[in-house]
Design brief:
This protein is mostly helical. Helices cover about 70% and strands about 0% of the residues. It is built from 7 helices and no strands.
Length: about 190
Amino acid sequence: MLWVCVYAVTIREPKVSREKPLRVTSLNPVRDAKTIGHDVGVSRVTLEEKNTALRHRFIRLLADGESVAIAEAERENRIAQLLNQLKWAYDGIADDILALEAAQEGPERRDQLLREALDELATMAELSTGVVFSTDAPWRLALDALRGYIERLITSPLINALTLADIDLALQRIERIEKTAMSALRSYFGYINA
């Protein structure tokens, strides 16, 4: 005699109300959809908008014109302008750091401000070039490496969205260092004159 046992298993799906729309919990519906398990890719419209934004950045960086054709026609002049901006930033950073190094009064405050400025310089140079610059090494090495990197980007014959984004980011980084060095020098003079 053979005994057979059969068990009935009921699998219940969670109740999902089809009558109610998806509740949006923030201003970012894509993120909301991802949090509840939907696979959401980047739409074609979003990609086109990003491409358009990069094209506008190309025009702003290399021509200040209204079209890519104008940008190409004005490229040599714009490259010269960008190289001049880079030189001014480089000279400003070097002058401010040298002035801080030469300062005699308030050595503790001077050293602290100088260390902060040089840390910023080493970090920005490392992020751009991929080379690690120690804070013990001469700061001019990091500044020269960053300048050389930006010059190569600006004068590169290769123009694509990645190159332009790199140029823009590198210019933002050297401008940040310039502001940091200038702020450090001003802070030092404020400390001395207080």
